[in-house]
Amino acid sequence: MVATFARLPPRMQEAIVSRLGWTSLRPVQEEAGAALLDGCNAIILAPTAGGKTEAAMFFVLADLMERPPSAVGALYLAPIKALLNNQAERLGTYTEMVGLRRFLWHGDTTQAERRRFLKEPAELLMTTPESLEVMLLSPRVPHARLFADLRAVVIDEVHALAGSDRGAHLMAVLQRLGRFSRHDLQRVGLSATVGNPHDILTWLSGSSRRAGRVVDPPRPPGGREIAVRYCATEEQVARAAAGAAQGQKSLFFCQSRALTESVAQRLRGRGIDVFVHHSSVSLEERQAAEHRFHHGSNAMIACTSTLELGIDVGDLDRVFQAEAPSTVSSFLQRMGRTGRRSGQRANTMFLCTDPEVVLQAAAIVELAREGRVESVRPQTRCWPVLVHQLLALCLQYGGISPERCAEELKGVPDFSGITRAELDELIDHMLSNDYLFSSGGLLSMGQRAERVFGRKNFMEIYAVFSTPQLYRVVAESGKDIGSLEQSFVDKLVAEMSSFLLGGRPWLVREVFHRERLVKVVPAPAGMKPTWAGYVPQFLGYELGRKMHQLVTSDTPLPYLDQSATEILATLRHERASHRGLAVEVEGEDELVWTYAGGAVNQTLKYGLGLLHGWGVASDNFRLRIRRLDDGRVEDSLRQLARAELWEEPDFQDRLLRAMPEYRLSKFQEALPRQRALEVVREYLIDLPRTLSFLREVLP
Question: What is the 3-state secondary structure (H, E, C) of 624-661?
Fold first, then answer.
């Protein structure tokens, strides 16, 4: 291990010892250093605050010291701007102490700052995938000069991108960016929790020819304090959290903005400084919360997942969780915010108001104890981002041939399952529907695309994910409170409607639709707004099966309090017959309890509907079927267990036509209907797990 440190430039060795006061590297840093100095692509895994950033950046910066780049030599990419801002000071220290510079480029960076950077580039550029797209599309950015000597890309919280449209966009941008560099870009992903790191490494490597390594050294067992409590009401949730949090610094994670606001309001006046942190709270308010919390000693931030991704708010004593997250990964990320100080144990207290959620929380804890974290499912036919990239290439080059489009995007793993013939079909469709225009064999953006995506100088092209229309919420004093989505604002009535935002109730004074502005005054009480989407949110297969295992066993769970223990005992008594595939009669319906997760149950729902025309409803745990006198459910499920049935062209076609037209991406409208429905099918249907499940449970 001394050998890895010794391979660093002497000036960096001296800076680490003298400036940082380190006497040794952690195991993850030693192992990562060997991989990166050997020129490998890598996935680096370590708990929150486990030294992942240094494990990558020390060795990337070492190369920039020994071989100074002509312009930008390395990129640090983060999925959210807040994480960039949070890491800016740390990476600024690391670059400065070895005579290098870093530059932060995102939506808040001024034009003057950008011009100075373009004139004299820093060696390390910190940005987001979307801001990198902005740079590629800007004629004012000298791409060939700026990125000619780019060597390495470090992606923080890589699990938040992999398997998603934003991940596909990242890989496409890196592929296009790599064409300006004379190097095979070294790709490094950082993550605290991922279930299939080798698959993520293969995805992240893309077209790179470098060898790859997963860096995941053994972790010393650490103590954890976990409690699951049942509370009948949100008032009891607030009372329990306030009692446990007195005199400490804590985060209170909630599963929705509405619940965050409600919890924060109920916590106020209980002897704790309470702050609110979610995406609808203004940047000013969020930053004030982070700053005041950082320097407080008896404070709590009620938050959504905005504080899940590694943003440092100082040493924490406690983590609370209202209800339960949907994944083990989220639970570990959140719990990992604690236990950083010597002698402190990582901890989480679940406060559940629903009996089913008590079971869900217990299943998450048990999966974590077994070391089982969700895998990210790679995608190979990401149609919406392919549409986005065709439009982006048209903007970048002004005019581009279909052949060059194919060449630019070759090597992007998220498009690897789309054939050249299918790409040509997509281009033909976009041409015939005026999303693209062709002249002299070169493609450019069509009038319809300009009309749909051209607002604010094509701002809609820069971001892959849909952004709802937002209205600013402003107090009479002029203070910016936050924002609300238009669908919610449309229901507001001046001088009558009230809502919660920033943990406080507000009364609507006036709505200005032209300016997208809501003026408010403080209200004595509020009605919490609901921000729920219409697309179903699924629990995973492994979580569902663990819930089934727990509800059909009699093993005591010591981290459940008395109320939660009684809830679990009641569920076990009520579901004593659920050891196999349980079928119950409820009125005119048959309930088929699967505990297989949302995607498997959706797959079964559509399969049964196509087989018999049955009306079937599904959730994460069961199917509800209009009662059948002849008891054909089990026989029908046995038919669905035949993979050949799903491969029949007629069955596949009918399945596709049965898909609801959910809008999962703003670029779906530019797709042929068949491809748009395929996008929905990929979200709703999980055939491999469904077949595996049926073979497991059917006699």
Answer: EEECCCCCCHHHHHHHHCCHHHHHCHHHHHHHHHCCCC
